[in-house]
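Re: the request from the purification team.
They wanted to know what the chain is likely to look like in 3D before they choose a buffer screen. I agreed to run a prediction and write the result into the notebook, where they can find it.
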Amino acid sequence: MEKNPLRIALFAGSFDPFTIGHADIVRRALALFDRLVIVVAVNPEKHCMFTEEQRLDAIRRLYAGEARVSVMSSDGLIVDVAREVGAQFYVRGVRSVADFEYEKIQAEYNERLGSLETVLLYASPSLAAVSSTAYRTLAYFHKDASWMIPKQATIK
């Protein structure tokens, strides 16, 4: 397989919803890579607050002016998506030791299955407590969590 001269990375997650923490990882990844493919991971066993289309639309609106970012969804293995789009790297955000331990194991699988190099970016300290789970919890209790979502990515 011929190496792609562009440094293409994937950034995947359920993004239910896409938060300011996710946007910070994207911003920082764009400083490292030529192209970034944001993948909305679809898992039929996971019950999401927002539909796949809502999540895709929100992220596409946020990055509409950024030619180096593309957005897609997939229900497959990340190594297969990487092969499909020619990505050599997989970007992951890490907020805690628990995140690190999980990502370390996943990185080993991705290297073994598809020679996909995982790049960990630590959460900015001011954003370490921001998560999609926290957003959904606050929303469930009718608390304002809008500050966790980039304004252009508000789900309609």
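For the purification team: Residues 97-114 form the longest helix (18 residues).
Please add any questions underneath this entry.
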